[in-house]
Design a protein that fits this description.
The chain has 15 helices and four strands. A hairpin with a 2-residue loop joins strand 2 and strand 3. Helix 3 packs parallel to helix 8, helix 3 packs across helix 13 and helix 4 runs antiparallel to helix 6.
Length: about 425
Amino acid sequence: MMSSFLFRAMDARAGIFLALMAAVIVLVPAGNLLVPETSPFHVPTYAVTLMGKYLTYALLALAVDLVWGYCGILSLGHAAFFALGGYAMGMYLMRQIGTRGVYGDPLLPDFMVFLNWQDLPWYWYGFDMFWFAALMVVLVPGVLAFVFGWFAFRSRVTGVYLSIITQALTYALLLAFFRNDMGFGGNNGLTDFKDILGFDIQADTTRAGLFAASGLALVLCFLICRAITRSKLGKVLVAVRDAESRTRFFGYRVEHYKLFVWTLSAMMAGIAGALYVPQVGIINPGEFAPANSIEVVIWVAVGGRGTLVGAVLGAILVNFAKTWFTGALPDIWLFALGGLFVVVTLFLPKGIVGTVSSGWTALRQRKVSAAFEAGSDEPPGPPQSPSAPANVTANEPPAKPAHRAPGQAEPQPAE
């Protein structure tokens, strides 16, 4: 049943994306572990880590595109779910340090010893086990999103008001996690990780494994999102995005659909944060910053809102540009980012993938029209919509039922 659900996600665009991702997942670790360092095809370890970070960002952008591109929920607080997933993984990594910390305490992390904590807080229990930490990675962001969405969507908070509330949520968490008495490391956060699942976190093989795990998580979440958006559920989500009131009048429980996709998106963001932390080696309250959530929206807008592939492409391209700018011209990166958003809004409102897709469709239509003018028997017409009825052609609108007076019998076919 699960395989048939994921099979709905397969089409030409998804096939190309999966083929590229398969090549990247295999070739990058192989180039790092199997190719000698003297070879021009060798992939340095720092590049593997950097690209792994890009993949986690792509997964976060995919989560935002699911709620914004297909359901019309502009979230300015997804960095909160990303950071919560990262903190859950960071707590597991801190518990794995044990006596190898600076203070050598077998139970308390170094920052707790420094702050004179006597006992491990109750909410740290269980994080010495990977399965428990993995469960918290999806459960904590999911529960927070469910509770937040339950009240927000039932109250019919929409539009810019919902965006402001999501931004307030992540800012409140930012202030809370900055406090030392919260037990999460204060403004320094969690760092100095040693190993994960018994493997040295600094080893090349571990870095390659984390990169491959990030790629596989991105592929799996892409297939899930693609299957959802191409199903009946996806059509309802698009209807909610385009005409929420009309969809509600048709009898759909709009708040239930929004709550489901919102919670799923938060869980995906938590997974992205959990994969991000062991690769960068630190998690601190700065990840909650509202500016991070706004930047994710820019990634999606650049790549193409409502395309999924565009969200992944936008995240990778913008972060690659950020890496180059902050290294070569660090003082102008924020100006470049703002200018990029303005350019995309004015000249590429559909993003890169949306613009290319529209151009390709227009080119095919022109070719069909040219072939018809050259003597083809097939008249040109707009591309058939996948959701259009099979008996309705592209050039002939569906027949409307004839108007009958009240009480008039329905006309019968001729004998």
